[in-house]
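Assemble and predict.
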Amino acid sequence: MGRPALRLRWGRALAPYLLVLPGGAWLLLLFVLPIVTLAITSLQSGDFITGFVFSWNFANYPLGLQIYSEQYVHALEYGGSATIVALVVAYPAAYWIAFHAGPRKSAYLLAVLLPFFVSFVIRTLAWETLLSDNGPLLAPLKAIHLLPEDVRVLATPVAVTGGLAYTFFPYMLLPIYASLEKVDRRLVEAAGDLYANRYQVFRRVILPLSIPGVFAGVLLTGIPAVADYVNQDILGGVGTTMVGRVIEQQFEVNTNYPLAASLAFILMLGLLAMLLVYQRLFGTEEIMGG
Amino acid sequence: MPAQALPRDPARRPAAGVRARRRFRLGSLLLPAYTHLVMLWLFAPIIVMVLYGFNNTHGRLNIVWSGFTLRWYANPFSIPTMTSALVVSLITATLGMVISTVLGTMIALAGHRYHYRGRTILDAVMVLNIAASEVVIGSAMLTLFISASMPLGLPTIVLAQVMFSIPFVAITVRARLAGFDPSLEEAAQDLGASPLWTFLLVTLPVIFPGVLAAALLAFALCMDDYVITSFVSGNTLTFPLWVYGATRYGVPPQVNVVGTFIFVGGGLVAVTGALVRSWRSRRLAKEAAL
């Protein structure tokens, strides 16, 4: 590196820290510290009127799990199925764009991203319009008696799952595309030269090499999908409440901060635990290689 | 592992390969058709949003098509509370963009040019931040602001939006820096440029496309955020919060009009950027050929 001017040495040693300090401090104060406060709040007792005091009140955790187990299960169900739907829908499209879209690759990627320039609240509202009982999708089908009059999509788990899969779709497609794009084309050719048919090339060369992208996509889609409540609130019904909604209500309406904080903490720890298990199961590359 | 993934069975009859190739020809029609269907699915709510901005509705609900009108385009900003929410969104998104772009770029530069202690921790915090669910981050921040008795409003919104944008900026700029030859900076310093001038004359022009992309991404993230913002906003309404609140009594078509403006604006920026990039790379290729 450059000239070892004595005057500069201190500056050189300090420079990275000065560069990192403001952003790092911002993250420390507004991400790490809040998580700590959340943990502390979840162990408080008391109520909004008389005030909350810290008392190692672990009872909030079993209480929250007990009252809202159904909503946790809903979150896992809808978030999990939405992740699978997004994966199944995204993979073939990502495959085609990466291997066969030729020079129009970036145009297709841009097209995938463009809809997401519109606020996701507005997009979810548009789905509400599309899926409504007499909306543009169902009304014509009912008019020609392809569907019975009482069929509904809105306010069902199907609508919630579809909405979640839609909302987080780019988080699934882009990592899968990136890993497929990186696949060395010479390997594909070599497999073909060795008389592998198309299916075998895909099964034994392309698919294993795209697993890191699938891994990232499932994480980036699954975590927000499980915790989301906007889709459920707009597209779902009374019986489809997910835990994210409960947390929000406990904070904003019931102002039972300790219970709300423990609910959020359970969600966070649950997701972290699943993430670790998932990484153990699928995070290594050799599982598909053999 | 790729070598292992190759088939070990060279004694395959070529006929199988030929048959597979013919079947693939059908597949090569299926996959593009499928990909374009996925595109249609992605754009479906956008089409609905744009279309229903022209809906001549008279009731509170904008769900049933009742004829074409330009009424809503004649006065898109006629709802004062919606317009002021839009202004709040533009203010917070601009502040969030500027601050997070500066801080995130500094983090990316530090990581590129220096080795410093705590880098792994900072990277882990940023990844966790991207992976953590918004409900948890939002509620954690709320508990912090409550226990610090900070009044909720525009400042807390900006604090939160900068926080969740910094990691995205840092990662985007770092990706751009990855292809940047540090010997250029050394050459500038050997020629007597101070660190500041080196940055302004050498580093910044090279990484500028990355910084610009990061800034646009941060702006879009801040403009669009609902969940975290709703936790820390108090009584202040941003545009997504206003729209969400309006779902209780019917969303006016002006929302579709403003949504269309945002979509067209964002789309123009993105398409222009893509065109400039492809034009530039084609020119570079031509220069290299000469």
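Residues 24 and 254 of chain B are 48 Å apart (CA to CA).
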